[in-house]
Amino acid sequence: MRIGITCYPTYGGSGVVATELGLELAARGHEIHFITYAPPIRLAELDHLPDVARRIAYHEVQVLSYPLFDYPPYALALASRMAEVAEHYQLDLLHVHYAIPHSVSAYLAQAMLAPRRLPVVTTLHGTDITLVGQDRSFLPITRFAIEQSDGVTAVSRYLHEVTCREFNVQRPIEVIPNFVNCDRYRPRTDLNDARHEFAPNGERLIGHLSNFRPVKRIPDVIEVFARVRAHLPARLLLIGDGPERPNAEYLVREKGISEDVFFLGKQNAVYDKLALCDLFLLPSELESFGLAALEAMACEVPVISSDVGGLRELIDDGRDGFLVPPGDVEAMARVALKLLTEPDWARTIARQARAKAQSRFCSTLVVPRYEAFYDRLLGATF
Ligand code: GMT
Asked: Nearest C-alpha to atom 9 of ligand 1 is from which residue?
């Protein structure tokens, strides 16, 4: 199949899922065309995947800047580019990730090409529904685009429920969970040098990965780490970047723990860093899925996350990870200390986490569900 994929190419779970899906589909023989304003961050993986690279193209969306346009009309530029690429490369369908504004642009592109058929799939990821989509100014058009898409998927049962309830959407929405490539995200025994760099005296390593927005509750990560560090030698790896980073840096200085906290910024091969960790923290206010937690689990790293949204579908509390009420840093620090001081128990949890990732969320299991979904929409087999 020839598939056009649109997403936010910057750091964020929806862009990561869209890019990983494109890589997986290309590896399975499909031709993938990314249509975005910048190359999606994880396309850097293509440097290691020459066979996949020849089935992937990137089409940049340029937005004209003109003094009259205080708000350059990106959604329109995107729609034009989608229609152009779809026509020129004979795309079979468009798959957009994150409803706003991508599903509206795809709807316009489809209308521009009529009567040629160009099915549109929208995947709902999270804040497009839980936050942004519920802003009164966005709600009607988001609901419209969801209703008009030929196929809609949501990344968790939780998100499916919220979409139906808050948007009063009647149409079918298929839950296809996020996934991880279990070959790249795996436990590692070859990282001793890197481990030594961050923990030269055998300190315990705690990790966090996000786009550093307020919903991620970065101050909780730092508070939990400070409490753990008061009891045992530990270091914190903060992977990612975003608006909360300056606050986080300030907090770390205030607490006098700068020497033990590494702000690593945006990273391409996050699996190289996740696999170093003894523990991963995700104390978010809300997560419709919590992709970073799944990536840590696949690397055989135990996760403590907040007990919210789609994380409840990912983690079995006390079996393959831990769920604590959002904001309860005391509980999170207690579980963290127990895990770090009882390595046999931590190893059991970590192994179960990896087993869960492999048996339920591995790309080899989930990507065929997208293919089957496309197949049903097109009414043909491939
Ligand atoms: O983080 C967001 O607010 C938006 C979105 C993104 O683009 O990063 O993240 C959402 O989609 C991810 C991929 O499906 C999920 O793993 C995240 O849980 C979800 N974020 C939230 O629900 C806050």
From this structure: 13
